[in-house]
Write a structure and sequence with these properties.
Trna Endonuclease, Chain: A, domain 1, about 160 residues, alpha+beta, two-stranded antiparallel sheet, 2 helices
Length: about 160
């Protein structure tokens, strides 16, 4: 079971990429001059990590998990979107590995009645993501951490 972190509501911004400059560099683990966001959703999550007092520290794309991909049966490296450490309401520290992904990519593709190239590509992507997420779950469990996938629904980017 994947736990969901509840993030306060965000408004949708236009898709973009760039370098994020942490305001609280003391909270960022790694080189704060090389923090890359690959979507507006990641940017908003970075802002949340940076400005939320219960987030003790965080990093982006610096935790690497090895995994065997189901599509080619070879070893690969999965760069997690985020690793954050949060102080819970009871004062205990909890570490989360966080992947940010559109909700549609967390579900298997719907079979359109025939095997189109699009369906095959979506199926391969889904299988690859499942391999990565299974490895991340196990990696987290081994360290007494938790792996979570946040979608637009969790980030408050939809009306659902």
């Amino acid at each position: 079971m994947i736990m969901i972190l509840y993030i306060y509501s965000f408004k949708m911004a236009k898709y973009h990429q760039g370098i994020y400059k942490p305001k609280r560099t003391d909270k960022y683990i790694g080189d704060p001059t090389k923090v890359v966001f690959r979507s507006s959703w990641e940017l908003k999550f970075m802002n949340w990590c940076d400005m939320t007092s219960s987030v003790i520290n965080w990093q982006s794309e610096e935790t690497v998990v090895p995994y065997i991909c189901a599509t080619d049966n070879k070893w690969h490296r999965y760069f997690l979107d985020f690793r954050i450490q949060v102080k819970n309401k009871d004062g205990k520290l909890k570490t989360y590995l966080v992947e940010i992904k559109p909700h549609g990519q967390t579900l298997p593709p719907k079979y359109p009645g025939r095997q189109t190239n699009r369906y095959l590509n979506e199926s391969m992507t889904f299988m690859k993501n499942q391999s990565k997420w299974d490895a991340a779950k196990n990696y987290a469990i081994d360290r007494n951490w938790e792996f979570v996938i946040l979608t637009e629904h969790h980030l408050g980017l939809t009306n659902k």
